[in-house]
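Open question from group meeting: does this chain pack into something compact, or does most of it stay loose? Before anyone orders reagents, we agreed to write out a predicted structure and look at it together. Recording both the input and the output here so the notebook holds the full record.
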Amino acid sequence: MTKMSRDITIGIDIGTSGCKSVAVRQGRVLASATEGYPLYTPRPGYSEQNPVDWWSGVCRSVSQVCKQINADEIAAVSLSGQMHGMVALDREYQVIRPAILWNDQRTQKQCDEITAAAGGLDALLEHTNNMMLTGYTGGKILWLRENEKENFDKTYKIINPKDYILLRLTGELCTDMSDASGTGLFNVKTRTWATDLIRKLDLDPDLFVTPLESVDAAGNITAEASEATGIPEGTVVYAGGGDAVISTVAMGLTPGKVGVTLGTSGVVAVTLPGFAPNPRGLLQVFCGNLKGSWVAFGCTLSAAGSYQWLRDKLFGEYSFEDLNGMAEKVPAGSDGLLFTPYLTGERCPLFDPKATGGFFGLTVNMGRGHFARAVMEGVVFSLRQVYELICKSANIAPEGILAGGGGTKGALWRQILADIFGLPVSLSPGAAEGGAYGAALLAGIGHGLYDSKTAAGFCGAEEVIPPVPENAKVYESAYAKYVRLYDSVKWLNMGE
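Structure tokens returned:
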């Protein structure tokens, strides 16, 4: 009798718009499924989700994947997820309130308090190597204490979104070092919680869970989780990582190359040969997903999320394919129409939670296609600003871009990316699967199915998109105008 091969890995990504689950064998995607769930904005600048909705999305998407494969061949599971979200649990591990997400902007006051408590920005960077941003978990914890004391007093542990799914799958409470980095309360140099800073904030270090390396085993699938998902009971679950970091694994990013992820948010990232200081905190320097690795990146908050906003709020009767078709009929530069994607404030390179987006340069001759293309171009302009900051800080001059994330499914997005950056764009086989694919690869590395070098080889470019010289010239002029827009109109967001 032939012995059954157990070499399939499952990657689960807890995104903002939905959960994506994939089954992967030796780098090849065997099955993929996505299930959406709601996003709540109870007040302007607020962004929340119900963690139970994430679990429902996991159960539905993983069940679909397991039906497309032989589930008995699953060797291991790992997780990816939206970073910085605050999930507050009581002593029975029950969720106390809706999770406050990465793109929530309510905590500027608390971020300022954390920076002051640390002794100023330079002192904060000594503790964490990162400034405290409104998206980070740290400010959310103080907001909870100051505004919902009853809920805060009930809180036993604070975890991130993917860690809640790990809890539901295995019954274990832990996180990984890349996701812990995104709390703003983690010492990324020593790869430990910044306990001195945590105590200065009058918080108990026991509020936080054990940080593991991404490729460490975190637990095993319980009988209850097996019944809900179809993954065999006892299957090992590895710690995984935060989506902005794990996307570098999905792309096979190595030192000297730049990765761009077009998800709900947009990320420009480089892997580092070792720990590196972060002068003035202009970038995010987090622990990487491989032991002893680090990643430097910057995030623009509304990337593909801006395109979804356009479709959902303005052109709901059209599909994304319809909008893409309209945009393709509009020339590069959108006949002068510019869009700033600051729909939920902006992180890198502006660090302004009050920034607002807008369209500039409207004329009577413009139609739906102009809006669609201008949104795509505005998002990539923002990513280019991040890219230029990273290149300057890391002192690199890359020869090309590795692209990933759901936005890269669109051929026009990919071409605009190449044209605005003026560099060839390469896609890897799992690029469109994003964090879920990276999680599946980490499960394989952790389980010993292959090493990290082999995993990077799975991500070899399957398509290379060169920039179109005529378009690149148009975009240079448009980009010069774009970078001036924020300073020209930021007075609109100032108080009287």
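Observations to bring back to the group:
The chain has 17 helices and 23 strands.
The mean pLDDT is 94.
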